[in-house]
Amino acid sequence: MKKFLSPVIVGLALLTAVAGCDKKEEATAANSPIKIGIAGAFAGDLAPYGIPQKNTINLAVEEINAAGGVLGRQIEIYAEDDACKPETATNVASKLIGEGVVAVIGHTCSGATIAAMSVYRDADIPVISSSATSPALTLGGQNPKFFRTIPHDKAQAELQTKFIVEHLKAKRVAVVHDKGDYGKGLAVLVKEGLEQAGVEIILFEGITPGAVDYSALIRKIARAKPDVIAFGGYHPEGSKIVSQARKKGLKTPFVSGDGLKDPSFIKIAGKYAEGYYVSSPADISTIAKTKEVTAQLKERGQQPGNFGLQTHAAITALVNAIEKAGSTDSDKLAAALRSNTVATTLGDISFDERGDVIGSGFSMYIVKNGDWVTVNY
Amino acid sequence: MQALNESGSFFLELFFSGLTRGSIYALIALGYTMVYGIIGLINFAHGEIYMIGAFVGLTVAGILSILQFNLIAILVLAALFAMVYAAAYGYTIEKVAYKPLRGSTRLAPLISAIGMSMFLREYVILAQTPDFVSFPALTEGLFDLGAFSSMIQPTELVILIFSFLMMAGLFILIKKTKIGKAMRAISQDREMAMLLGVNSDRMISLTFMIGSALAAFGAILISAHVGQINYNIGFVVGIKAFTAAVLGGIGSIPGAALGGIILGLTESFATGYVSSDYEDVFAFGILVLILIFKPAGILGKSTTEKV
User: Fold this and answer.
1) Which residues of A23-32 are buried (b: 16+ CB within 10 A; e: fewer)?
2) Model ipTM?
3) Domain that holds residue A141
4) N or C: which end of chain A has fewer CB within 10 A?
5) Confidence band (pLDDT; 50, 70, 90) for A24?
6) Does the beta-carbon distance from B132 to A249 stay under 8 Å?
7) Residues A67 and A214 both lie in one domain
8) Total count of domains within chain A
């Protein structure tokens, strides 16, 4: 076994060494490609969010390159998988910086983005996320060159609060979260909003993602008899909780954020998902460019997913900024991102001083007959 | 039913929910404790065997439901297939990852176990899917509990009954049969048992197979109750079951069962009466307390190391 393996290992090592040399030899001439990094969950259980992001970027970049690139240079994409893990995200960030990228689109999850933030700040690299919605990312101001094409959770929490108070007319609400940056962050904002509106919070608890079951918590909630259950977290835990609650005979409506608005939520929770409310970025399917991108993705057998269109907008805004700035200099890029309005799959968007998107908002959806339907209220 | 007051019935609900969870921990903890008892190794790949058992069960149930078998036949066949398959995995893992390291330092098989656990997880991601997949509710229609269903769900009752039956079967196997006698002999003194004609390699393989089959059985029951599985379900369960095994006294079979139940009840009551935020705090707090007062676990034998 050992004798057989060692030539193989040596061969592999040689191969990687050769491949390594090739990359270093690239000239930094004026017509060399512009390197853009993308980072997110491209494997693991949150891959349904990350893979459409990668696909839409590839689509947009192929189109731009076919039309002659930007500033006469081609765009080259470097994709790195962080599996939404904060500890991996910092490594991914360093790796991308090592590759010499001028900007990064990503990361998929808030926790990973927060972890990688200081690495990008120290390297002075602009970052545009299309799905990290934790308010701290922009409101905290750790990285003045952070932008996002998705509104942050505070806007989402305000909409959820309004919906729970005005539409569902709830007086007593149970708030549950998954202890993560995104889930707990959103849950805290919803709780504060509801308290201000005079709604009684009868329970505010975190669950351990991956636990065997949640039956003890569900029994506790059933006993407290809330009018509404607000859950902050992602779809795997969401589908587990709602299935177990419905099996237990609990009919209380659930309200969650965009972390649950994923086709796999409905696929797994099945009939138990019916009537589940979520807040998620507003319907943009009527915008001409969105239709075009969705159709192109369909031709390739791909879906825009939950954040694909936001990601398309991010790469469009970035390429537009490179063009307007006339260079890939970090300061000029950031200034160009702030000062220009660009037509994207989200409509005409620009970024405010903190880096939050202007021109894109949230709406409420409900699961009806196995599909997401916009709620008008 | 009506006679019970509201807080009394809430207590019972929490009790059953903890008992259900605890009996699953116990089933899996048996695998850890049996392997430790016989060769002094902590098999960290045990949680992954649990996960693979769930995937095999899902595949078999899928095929059989296309062939329109009835629900009970699907459940029995899926559980049998999963147990046989998991036993084969347990056997192979022992032969590939642990047996070549027998007689080397104590740390070597431990590292090998951690590597095996990672390998199996990545293997399932590549061979199956990284996504969550839904698991059919095989055990839902087995019982109609009527008014008592608010106390304990049918799927939970199935878990309770079957895991207790399995554990009882195992106790009989260990205490009353020749195989059990051989296993106990090896765990007491392997060399002496071999001198007296016990085939220790075969008994060790058998231990791995039995532990793996029990884990797969637990996986089918809990997956049918929860309704979804992915490649990572063995991780948290594995850690909790390991905790249960240590709590009850690692190496002791009744200890593993007791440890599982205690852990499940602690978690359930912590969630019900304090907050689910502190579920793990209480679970591991109990572990620390017991290890302070009984370092070998509740039913563990404290052996003094001879120098």
Assistant:
1) eeeeeeeeee
2) 0.85
3) 32-152+286-360
4) N
5) very low
6) no
7) no
8) 2
